[in-house]
Amino acid sequence: MQIGKMLVTGAAGMVGSYVAEIFGDLDLTLTDVVGDFQYLDVRDPKMVLQAALDEKPDVILHLAAATDVDRCEREPDWAYHMNTIGTQNIALACQACGCIPIYISTAAVFWGDKAGPYTEFDKTEPMNTYGRSKLNGEKILMSLCNQYYVVRAGWMIGGGSNDKKFVGFMTRKIIDDAKKLTIVNDKFGSPTYAKDLLTSIRWLIQTKYFGLYHMVNSGSVSRYEICKEIAKILNNIDIELVPVSSAHFPLSAPRGRSEAMRNAKLDMLGAPPMPTWQEALKEYITEELLPLFLTAD
């Protein structure tokens, strides 16, 4: 499938920071409600429709989302407005202009009690409001559009200077010579390097194999194991890492034991395999975070 023009929502976010690198040869329209981007609030149906009609993209890469899981639990209307209704607005705009939506969803659509990694064929049953709002976005988009890509990502890593999540935070702590870190070891997931995610999406949209896919770096891991790997990459053997249960850090939203996923359908299509989570983590830290942090220091 030849893609010439792409409209991107949520371009200021973690995944959005790699769009220009991976899709730089396309005619890109980058939108968000913050940053130096064309202003587009996906919660506004008229604004979304007008943007699609004006730009006439071949695809809309829908990255805009409410991703603060605990705020979603405390403010469900905020979560559903952004993740469900915002996605409905994108789907309706795609109907109107004849373009194809690419919707980024989440492993939080599953309950989290499966022993092994979830595949696209497993039953969805979200445990929290965030997962329910994203799953409803999936359902609405798939009901309104005949052709679409729904892509479920895992624990997102990336963003460089915009990284406010676990990997960026822990890397900074270890670089700053923290002596002791307390890390949760009873929740598991599949890290997803944002750059690898977009690279796999680029491959997928060339195939015209529309549908629902998992896209994660291979392997499942706890936050504690990720932190151990970060310390190894940074060659810090002196730091004390203390594993604790998630009860040590009470949060508003319940989480399942596992958000681990496997790219079953991509494997069946013969897609280029995504790197392991260890390979992805090493690339991200050594090529992005270390130069950034060391320059800042």
Architecture overview:
The chain has 297 residues and is of the alpha/beta class. It has one domain: NAD(P)-binding Rossmann-like Domain (Rossmann fold). The protein is 40% helix and 19% strand. It has helices at residues 19-22, 45-55, 69-74, 76-97, 129-144, 166-175, 194-207, 223-233, 264-269, 277-296; strands spanning 5-9, 27-32, 38-39, 59-62, 100-106, 149-153, 155-157, 180-184, 188-189, 191-193, 211-214, 221-222, 240-244, 258-259. The chain has a seven-stranded parallel sheet, sandwiched between helices. A three-stranded mixed sheet has the order 12-9-14. The chain is globular, with a radius of gyration of 19 Å. The mean pLDDT is 96.
Report the C-alpha radius of gyration, rounded.
19 Å
What is the CATH class name?
A: Alpha Beta
Silhouette: globular
Name the CATH superfamily assignment.
NAD(P)-binding Rossmann-like Domain
Quickly count the helices.
Answer: 10
What is the β-strand count?
14
Largest sheet: 7 strands, parallel
| CATH architectural label | 3-Layer(aba) Sandwich
- Number of domain units: 1
Strand order of the largest sheet: 3-2-1-4-5-6-11
Spans where pLDDT lies below 50 across 5 or more residues: none
What class would the helix/strand composition place it in? Answer: alpha/beta
| CA(first)-CA(last) distance | 45 Å
- Kindly identify the CATH topology: Rossmann fold
Helix and strand element order: EHEEHEHHEHEEHEEEHEEHEEHH
Average the pLDDT over all residues and give the rounded result. 96
Q: What is the helical fraction, as a range of percent?
A: 40-55%
Strand content: 15-25%
